[in-house]
Each structure stands twice: as C-alpha cells, then as structure tokens.
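[job 4417] fold queue: 2 targets
>>> target A
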Amino acid sequence: EDYDDDDNARESDDARDGGGAEFKDEADADDAKGDRVGVRVRASANASSEPVVISLKVDGMMCDGCAESVETCLKKVEGVSVSAVDVNLDTKIVKVSVDCASVVEGLTKLPMLVEAVRAGGFEAEPEFD
C-alpha cells in the first residue's frame, strides 16, 4: 500500500493518543498531549441556546432570607439575562443559569455576577469543578 506523509503522521498521532481519540475542545487535546492546562472550566451550552451554568462559592449565607437576597442581586445584574438561580445553603454553592449565545459569552459575565453578590454584602468567588 502507498501512504503519503500525512497518512503516516495521522497514524502515529493515533498511536500516541490511544487510537484517534476525539477531544471536546483544544484544552482537552493539549492535556492529552502532556501540556498542562491551568484551570478547566466546565460550562454547558449548545446550539439550541441552552443557558450557561456558572457556579459561585458564596460565603455569608446563613438562611433562606440570605439565599433570596443573593438570588435577587444576581437577577438584577444589568446586561446579564439570568434564567435561574439554584442556591445550596449547605455547600454555599450558587449555580447561575445565564442565557447567552455561547459558553465564552457566558463566562464573560462572571465578574459582573461576582461583583453583584459582593455588593449585596456577601463574599463570592468563582467555583471551578
């Protein structure tokens, strides 16, 4: 059989990565090649415009009233369309569903969400899984 250089290169790449593994994104591919990726963000969105879910660690929430205050702060952020807020008082994790066109667009809203919670009197930071 005749192989050109591209076919041979593909075959040796497949052998290294376990047989033609497919990666969800470039970060997954880089990680599989041995390059270290600093922070991996898991957010979900697709072409059908599902919301991007952003997790925040919020300290200072003690009761349902606090949870409602955090939810209100998040839903009032100008320029951010929040479709749902799920507060877990036990873990202090708040999951914010943001309506947007892409994961990248959703992640650009992260600083505004953190600042809104802080302005409401709570400590907040992104929670990366």
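>>> target B
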Amino acid sequence: TGSSCEMVDAGSTPLTVSADVTLADEVFTGDLYDMYSSRYIMLAGMLEREMNMALSSNPFFLGSGVGSFSPGSVVARVWMMFQNNGSALNHTTVIATLQNYISSNGGKLGNLTVSQVA
C-alpha cells in the first residue's frame, strides 16, 4: 500500500493520484471485499462524494473514486483524477489539499473520521 502519482505529458492523459485513506471509526467486514455489496456501495459512494467536495475548488479536478477497501480500521484505496495542464499539480500538492480539507473539518470527510491519508 501507499501512494503513487502518475506523471504524463501535458495536455494528454489525465493525471491520476492514488492514496490510502484510513477511516478510523469504520470496522472492516468481509463484505467490503465485494464491490457489489450494499455496504461497499454505500461507503464508496459516501467517500467519493466527500472527496469530490474536498477537491472541487481545483479547476482541473475531474473526479475521484474508490478502488478497494482493506482491513486496518478500514483503509480505502482511492484515486483522484485531474486534467493534466502542465502545471505544478502533483501528488504532494493533491494530498496536502486533501489533508488540509480534512484537518479544517475536524478530521472528517463528511461523517467519516479520517486518521491518515498516505
């Protein structure tokens, strides 16, 4: 696990930043391995909505999603996609923006308590 950043030529493929978001108050259950389970769909939808709100002020933000969940409280492997405009947008600035948003909202993304973004 961990975070990664995929850099591409300006103006071509979007920039995708991946990160692990630890949801401290959630308890991992086996249904979070199944992307078609009601709990997976509900939790992924909630997390995606909140990440979209957190990053919506960036004019190059295209969207976010959840790739998977894993144990450790609940760790969500998420991705955030940006239009690649050749700017200084990179993994570090995206993660810092998300961390600042969470910090300014009492350690939360909506109703989800986040203990770590890596």
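[job 4417] complete. Note on B: The chain has two helices and six strands.
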